[in-house]
Amino acid sequence: MASPEKFIFYAYQPSMAGAVILTVLFGLSSIWHIKQMVQSRTWYFIPFVIGCLFETVGYIGRALSSSESFPSSVSPGHLLIT
């Protein structure tokens, strides 16, 4: 008899502590680079700073989704493991 399918969002268990630590590190790095960019007027670093900000937002999302379980508001791109 086949076992019922179990919903999982990730194929592994993401670490909440790791996501929080990296959120803080990327956030601080973003602030530091913005400060340096404005002081030295090196506006060509704007794409780098935007990348740091998106990385920070991504780790916030990872921290929020690390404890998600079905049913939840996750995207339809989930995996079903049998």
Automatic annotation (TrEMBL):
Organism lineage? Eukaryota, Fungi, Dikarya, Ascomycota, Pezizomycotina
Q: How does it sit in the membrane?
A: Multi-pass membrane protein
Keywords linked to the UniProt accession = Membrane, Transmembrane, Transmembrane helix
PANTHER family per the record? PROTEIN RTA1-RELATED (PTHR31465), RTA1 DOMAIN PROTEIN-RELATED (PTHR31465:SF35)
On whether ATP-binding is a keyword of this UniProt record, the answer is: no
Location(s) in or outside the cell: Membrane
Main localization is membrane
Task: Please list every transmembrane segment annotated in the UniProt record, as residue ranges.
Answer: 12-31, 43-61
Its cellular-component GO annotations read: membrane
Q: What is this protein called?
A: RTA1-domain-containing protein
What InterPro entries does UniProt report for this protein, alphabetically? RTA1
Tell me the domain of life: Eukaryota
